[in-house]
């Protein structure tokens, strides 16, 4: 892999791209994941590769919602595992959530490789391998979940999701927190809390908010969630993208 000089103007973006490439080489990320990364990069470029204010508000609301949850689960796919494994493990610790591997292009080898990768980054338990539960209304591999994981969860963080599963999880009555750089995607539209931000910025920022909010009374957390307006956040992100990098 080519060494990227730290003073390169697009250092972060190139580093992210290399992480995905390394994920493919390690059998963690699917080849389709490269295409998904390209789509994400295009939206991120137009957002100015920064966390816009409405995304920060979504990240704070997501932190509050995770702290309020009885059985929160963070869903992990091949892109997310390659991009921010340690950060996900840290968030799971702070909000006391389970980590569950759930793949669109599911193979036993990739499931095992991702679970091992998360363990190498500090995870003590990784769900998803039992696959004794199903999401109703989905015919593909993403329907397979652990009955005591996503199956029983009340709140699920689903980063870089495909629209079908996001809609099916919403139909099951789960509270969905979606991270997706495309505010027009079906997943973002189906989310209770859509986070229109790059996963590499979003996860550490949700953790930062959760650390600050931990110990706050339930009423305060409830109020943060209630005040968050999903459709206004989606509109704001779309406006920022349409205006490109000139938007402040
Ligand atoms: O690992 P698997 O087998 O479960 O497959 C995962 C992928 C991502 C390949 C699969 O879910 C897929 O094909 O996803 P899509 O339909 O391409 O959707 C990915 C969405 O995530 C798109 O809307 C992208 O804009 C967005 N996205 C890509 N990279 C990032 C992102 N959003 C946030 N942060 C990113 N780094």
Descriptive notes:
With 248 residues, this protein is of the alpha/beta class. The chain has a single domain (53-242), classed as Phosphopantoate/pantothenate synthetase (Rossmann fold). It is 53% helix and 11% strand. The chain is built from eleven helices and eight strands. The protein has helices spanning 11-25, 31-47, 53-68, 78-83, 85-95, 108-120, 163-171, 186-190, 199-213, 218-227, 230-243; strands at residues 72-76, 98-101, 126-127, 133-134, 144-145, 155-159, 175-179, 193-195. The chain has a six-stranded parallel sheet, sandwiched between helices. The protein is globular and about 50 Å long. The termini are far apart. The model has no long low-confidence stretch (mean pLDDT 93).
Record the SSE blueprint.
Layout: H1 11-25, H2 31-47, H3 53-68, E1 72-76, H4 78-83, H5 85-95, E2 98-101, H6 108-120, E3 126-127, E4 133-134, E5 144-145, E6 155-159, H7 163-171, E7 175-179, H8 186-190, E8 193-195, H9 199-213, H10 218-227, H11 230-243
Parallel strand pairs: 1-2, 1-6, 2-3, 6-7, 7-8
Antiparallel strand pairs: 4-5
Helix pairs in contact: 1-2, 2-11, 3-9, 3-10, 5-9
This protein binds ligand PTJ.
Ligand PTJ binds at residues 30, 32-33, 36-37, 39-40, 43, 77-79, 83, 103-105, 160, 162, 179-182, 185, 198-199.
């Amino acid at each position: 892999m080519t060494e990227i000089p730290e003073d390169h103007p697009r250092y972060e973006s190139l580093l992210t791209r290399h992480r995905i490439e390394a994920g493919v080489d390690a059998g963690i990320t699917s080849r389709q994941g490269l295409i998904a990364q390209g789509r994400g990069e295009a939206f991120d470029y137009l957002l100015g590769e920064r966390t816009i204010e409405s995304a920060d508000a979504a990240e704070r609301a997501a932190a509050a919602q995770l702290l309020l949850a009885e059985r929160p689960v963070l869903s992990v796919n091949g892109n997310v595992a390659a991009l921010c494994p340690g950060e996900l493990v840290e968030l799971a610790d702070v909000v006391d959530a389970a980590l569950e591997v759930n793949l669109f292009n599911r193979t036993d080898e990739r499931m095992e490789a991702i679970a091992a990768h998360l363990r190498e980054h500090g995870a003590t338990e990784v769900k998803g391998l039992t696959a004794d539960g199903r999401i109703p209304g989905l015919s593909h591999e993403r329907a397979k979940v652990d009955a005591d994981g996503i199956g029983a969860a009340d709140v699920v963080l689903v980063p870089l999701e495909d629209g079908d599963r996001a809609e099916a999880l919403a139909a099951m009555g789960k509270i969905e927190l979606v991270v997706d750089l495309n505010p027009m995607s079906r997943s973002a539209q189906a989310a209770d809390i859509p986070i229109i931000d790059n996963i590499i910025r979003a996860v550490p920022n949700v953790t930062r908010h959760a650390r600050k909010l931990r110990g706050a009374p339930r009423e305060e957390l409830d109020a943060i969630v209630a005040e968050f307006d999903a459709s206004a956040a989606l509109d704001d992100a779309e406006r920022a993208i349409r205006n490109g990098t000139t938007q402040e």
